[in-house]
Amino acid sequence: MEYCSEEEFLKHYNPDAFEKLSMTTDILIFSVSDKAQENYRKLSEKHFSVLLVKRKDYPFKDKWCLPGGFIKMDETLEEAATRILANETNLHDIYMEQLYTFSDVNRDPRMRIVSTSYMALIDKNQLQDTLSENASWFHIIVLEDKKFFHITLENGAEELHFEVAKKVVDETTGRYELEVIKNDSLAFDHPLVITTGIERLKNKIEYTDIVFHMMPKYFTLGELQQVYEVILGKKLLDPAFRRMIASKVEKTNKTKSGGGHRPSALFQYKKR
Amino acid sequence: MEYCSEEEFLKHYNPDAFEKLSMTTDILIFSVSDKAQENYRKLSEKHFSVLLVKRKDYPFKDKWCLPGGFIKMDETLEEAATRILANETNLHDIYMEQLYTFSDVNRDPRMRIVSTSYMALIDKNQLQDTLSENASWFHIIVLEDKKFFHITLENGAEELHFEVAKKVVDETTGRYELEVIKNDSLAFDHPLVITTGIERLKNKIEYTDIVFHMMPKYFTLGELQQVYEVILGKKLLDPAFRRMIASKVEKTNKTKSGGGHRPSALFQYKKR
DNA sequence: CTAATAGTGTCTATTAGACAGTATGTT
DNA sequence: AACATACTGTCTAATAGACACTATTAG
Q1: Which one of A56, B13, B66, B223 counts the least CB within 10 Å of its CB?
Q2: Residue of A nearest to B4 (CA)
Q3: Which of A10, A73, A104 sits opposite B59 (nearest CB)?
Q4: Tens-digit pLDDT profile for residues B31-46
Q5: Going from the N-terminus, what domains does chain B have, and what CATH number goes with each?
């Protein structure tokens, strides 16, 4: 059938001309939390953590998964992610970026569902008992080698473990895709989403200022360094770290004391 | 209704419980092409280019757009992109990466369509008249300043122009989103897709080896440098460039001569 | 010889890594 | 005093920027 104008074409358009599917969005909420120390003098150790919720319904009933949900026809993916994040944490104005769109044909047992994941970074301390009751923070422990990620998530009561392989798709450049090879405890393809997010964050912390979204307004350089260390998974040398960070922060006249050692100056993020 | 097992739940699952939409994939095919010089001695100038196709049907009939199409229910987004790329160029085994998923509610006048874009990099010289007839390469000329991208695409016969603003969403870090503010000639939100791709490529060329997907097997360092320059939009100093690239290439015993000047050694990509 | 690109040497400035030292609070 | 972290000085190694120079071809 021929049309002579766009208006005419649209008037006769059959929206069911192409097959349709449902879309969801999953949100990877990362934060850094303190773990109290036995020794009053020692700094509280930092942990990199992710927020999971326990599924109340089928499929994957009673398994842990990332907060997520179906998108509505009158909202963008980003709006859906923001809505779900607010539902789950009661937080607004949170840093969030699109991570990846996962479209494996059988990633959901119910039907064809494509899911776009978002990564959000928050300062967990801003959050005061506003979590929905089926949600819980899990510490992330990452062991990475040439070929695999071995990732353990623990929340004090439960310990979840999965393994993701780096499947090389380009022999010459060494570029790889991720493939879940072991996963007992997480729903859907969420081990993939989490691993993708960890890699992204690890990369971006090096060339952007996103860490500061996980920090309170005032922080010591020691705390900031701990956050870098826990995300990068390695120790950093003090002088090098301070040089690197110098242009991004500014000293305030506040200090933090009471730790059985020299008090530390409090800094804040400095925009350039 | 209560179920006592996942199987039972799935058996009774109504796939229309949630609203559905169609998904498409758009492919941003980048390459670098030679532009012949008047003077036989001068090197042929390189141009950064993108492949566009002219729409044959409504909507946006007769406008240029990125190659793309609807995804089928039995293929992933990546498979759809690969299929469409092969259709359009007859090329296989091409480097491709997911770029971004665009989900504006009204991005398509027909109905709600979410589109995931992919970026492919090819060596245009491998391509010999295998383009589909409504496709054409356009040179990309980018003028970027603090607040805008002014982008011109030209294929010898036509010149398309659009402008994209950097809309700052986070005052402190300077993070911005892209917003099309002028576009007469491209269909859909494709100015956004193209700009997103240009930014991504510009970033990734600095810390990955993806350029080599746009290079022939053997190339001179001068040619390689031109490609970097044309993508980064700035001149590079020879010694610095050669040092930077040194570990990524290896010299072959071939040379390229005939240009009225000292012949150049041919190099190839060296995997690490 | 000349125009044009190919390719190198080297000086300097900046940045990154490493280590050792000093400073200052609490108990 | 002892411990623990805060913070700095400095030496060295590696990297990046800049410029000037030499090399080699076709015509």
Answers
A1: A56
A2: A58
A3: A10
A4: 999 887 778 888 888 9
A5: 22-207 (3.90.79.10), 211-269 (1.10.10.10)
